[in-house]
Amino acid sequence: MVVLGTWYWTLGSISVTTVNTPKVEAFYWLAITFSQTLGTALGDWMADNTGLGYGRGALVFGVGLVALAFAYYRTNISRVFLFWAAFILTRPLGATVGDFLDKPISDGGMALSRPIASAVIAVFMVGCILLLPQRAGMHPGRSEAI
């Protein structure tokens, strides 16, 4: 939140569509780095220290993402805010799902090997890409769809 707040205060926007200068790109990568690191730590903490475990910890973050999707389709909340909130929530979700798949059964996991857990996640991702409709986007600096 500090990086995003400083970015906004310094440049007036935290939209990824404004990432077109070295200064903005530095803020962008700082936001990515902190969200990755702290999000993974939050997912691990949620699963290990709250009594929720991996599955219920993942459910908490999954419900958060569903709430953001609801807000996207049903409210006028800033799309930039919703993007960053969803981006940040996917990090602890990924950590808890990954741990759920590869941690020992005695710790609440499924005890899949790392390669098999990675394959399960890859199949899920490919399935989502194939099943969910995709549409061409617009690059902020172009007038035609790419």
What does this structure look like?
This protein has 146 residues and is mainly α. It contains 5 helices and no strands. The chain has one domain. The chain is globular and about 50 Å long. The two termini are 32 Å apart.
Helical element count? Answer: 5
What characteristic shape results from the CA principal axes? globular
Largest sheet, in brief, is: none
Indicate the mean pLDDT.
90
Strand element count: 0
Query: How many separate structural domains?
Result: 1
- What letter string, H or E per element, gives the SSE order? HHHHH
Strand content: under 5%
Question: How are the SSEs placed, and which strands pair?
Answer:
Elements: H1 2-11, H2 22-49, H3 53-74, H4 79-102, H5 114-131
Helix pairs in contact: 1-2, 2-3, 2-4, 3-4
Concise overview:
With 146 residues, this protein is mainly α.
Primary descriptors:
5 helices; 146 residues; single chain; mainly alpha
